[in-house]
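Format notes (please read before filing issues)

Several people have asked whether sequences and structure tokens are stored in separate files. They are not. Every record keeps both together, in the order shown below: the sequence lines, then the token lines. Line labels are part of the format and must not be stripped during preprocessing.
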Amino acid sequence: MPEKQPIFILPENIQRVMGKDAQRNNILAARLVADAIKTTLGPKGMDKMLVDSIGDITITNDGVTILDEMEIEHPAAKMMVEVAKTQEDEVGDGTTTAVIFAGKLLENAEKLLDEKIHPTVIARGYRIASEKAHEIAKEISLKISPEQQDLLRQIVMTAMTGKGAEAAKEKLADIVVNAIMQVMEKSEGREGSGERKIFVDKANIKLEKKKGDGIEDTELISGIVIDKEKVSIDMPSQVREAKIALIDTALELKSPETDTKIQITAPEQLQAFVNQEEKILQEMVNKIKESNTNVILCQKGIDDLAQYYLAKENILAIRRIKKSDMELLAKATGAKIINNLNELTENDLGNAALVKEVKQGAEGEGMIYVTGCKNPKALTILIRGGTEHVIDELERAIKDGIGDVSIALEKGLVVAGGGAFEIELAKRLRAFSHGIKGREQLAVNFFADSLEVIPKTLAENAGLDPIDVLTELKARHDNNELTAGLNIGASQQICDVLKEGIIEPLEIKNQALKSASEVTTMILRIDDVIASSKTSGAGAGGMPPGGMGMPPEY
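Then the structure lines:
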């Protein structure tokens, strides 16, 4: 019989890994991502220093920032990065929790695979556990309302504990809560329900950074701060009882849209042409003056001659303001954005008690403060710090605080932090698993075990014995102490964390459970990876150097 020829269905530059090898590779890659950020969790978590290809440094313990900067290449590891990004986009915090939990789910799934349990059975068990976890989570949560501002401050302080902002967390918590109280909007719920829906547009809280002074000098401004200077030194540096015009058109002569030639045959014609240009600019400024405007905030350019005429009229003008800042200024001052000067009237103007230019730092760089707005729907948190790295980390901490309070108010539910939520959830899931028939019961139990990675990691990062901590936490919860958790403060003890003010929004936990279980299920169901090799000129979908194994950085 003639020898059979091998059949090739894929080109030479394609790499393929099948079965258990594909599963193990993917699980290992995902777990290594979780291990990379594990040490950043909790009040005693450490920071990472990330240096990019051009030498720029980022120092942070924010999970999504770390994973984003790491430039991870392994496709399964990238899926873990997506978990963090989804968490950040949806709820604004809890990225590290979500990734660590997903890593533990995969680690435990590997144990079940070793027991010859089929991946789809594990995936089904995890899905059952996830759905039940959401039910239990709602049962053990507490309601919160805008009137409970002390609780809201505690949510912010919990979010900031362990970050660079911790030194001034009380002051920053006041700033964040006050900011949200001013920009949040209420609407009626379902007809006859008596409920009021709360919505917080986080984009209405502008974060402006300025190097200098300390973290404690960060301030909330009832208005908008713009990183710009007045266009002319002859203009006033401050204007009280400001009447503000927001203009989305250039205070300059318009250039023709097509190629145009002007033929001048006599000096008088040139002079007339120049005079006409001056007249047009003068009329623009007269129109602004007639509307009683004393502050011009322009999105586009302002001609030098127009600057001169504005300064003569004692009008403060700022040019080339970002569109996003113009929209915030409109919300803060009540002004309308005008793109035709002929339509400008006094009714279109916004109001502020004071608009002033403030020179800061040794170089005397100016910033424009628009303050004292009545009932502003947009405002600014001016972040101060000694270095750019400190300010950047402080900005991330404040964003986490804003995200936590916003989602807590919108959903109206919070839970105890410090691992108390996870231990109680694990306990109830184990009890639920007794009623499940088949091998899915094992997966539900392992899902419950995976939840314990959060208090365990908190204890490890604080230098405590995780076994002792978990044993005592389980004993307390078996004794029906629902809010017993780990308070890693000065005392480092297990206590009623709710009384200690360690509180987190329920939605952050829910999103972490949802994202982690979904990505775990997806990774488990992959038994064949077919990828183009980068070395043969493949595009962005190629595998990292080293083929189907781990990237070199691992």
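For reference, the curators noted about this record: Residues 89 and 389 are 23 Å apart (CA to CA). The mean pLDDT is 85.
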